[in-house]
């Protein structure tokens, strides 16, 4: 990435992955920054595994309606909880694998760390090392950089010298 970015996606959750799909249709100049485990909270520990467990409970509960369909013996059915939970874990692992696949080949376009928008054309990240020209600068404007505690900030502004620039920062003219 030697050119400024068109888009920075903060977070690789469900919305971030949806944004990634759309952004990749339009440009190669993007960065996705994610704090915490990749694979979405929804897939790992949230709504998707819990819905799989709820579906098992609903299926078991439907045994009460078997009689009206002429099905007998429903009262003898039991739930094998270890088997139910193993199915939930297997489904969860598949959900996470799908989410991880979406970001597995992004290379330097994916960064683990915390990013914060500072304004319409400025952002900061705690995730070193950042790829070259990692800013949301419009084409033609080199990013100015500044050290802010443990964060590097980039900004869309006319080039200004950096007093202490990170190793990934492009040389400014």
Notable traits:
single chain, 173 residues, alpha/beta, four-stranded antiparallel sheet, 4 helices, 19% strand, disordered C terminus
Report on this structure.
The chain has helices spanning 14-26, 41-44, 47-61, 81-101; strands at 7-10, 30-34, 110-112, 115-119, 122-125, 143-148, 151-156. The protein is of the alpha/beta class and 173 residues long. Strands 4-5-7-6 form a 4-stranded antiparallel beta sheet, with no helix packed on it. Strands 1-2-3 form a 3-stranded parallel beta sheet, with helices on one face. A hairpin with a 2-residue loop joins strand 4 and strand 5. The longest helix is centred in the middle third of the chain and has 21 residues, at 81-101. The protein is elongated and about 70 Å long. Residues 129-173 have low confidence and may be disordered.
Blueprint of the fold:
Elements: E1 7-10, H1 14-26, E2 30-34, H2 41-44, H3 47-61, H4 81-101, E3 110-112, E4 115-119, E5 122-125, E6 143-148, E7 151-156
Parallel strand pairs: 1-2, 2-3
Antiparallel strand pairs: 4-5, 5-7, 6-7
Helix pairs in contact: 3-4
Would you summarize the structure shown here?
The chain has 173 residues and is α/β, with parallel strands linked by helices.
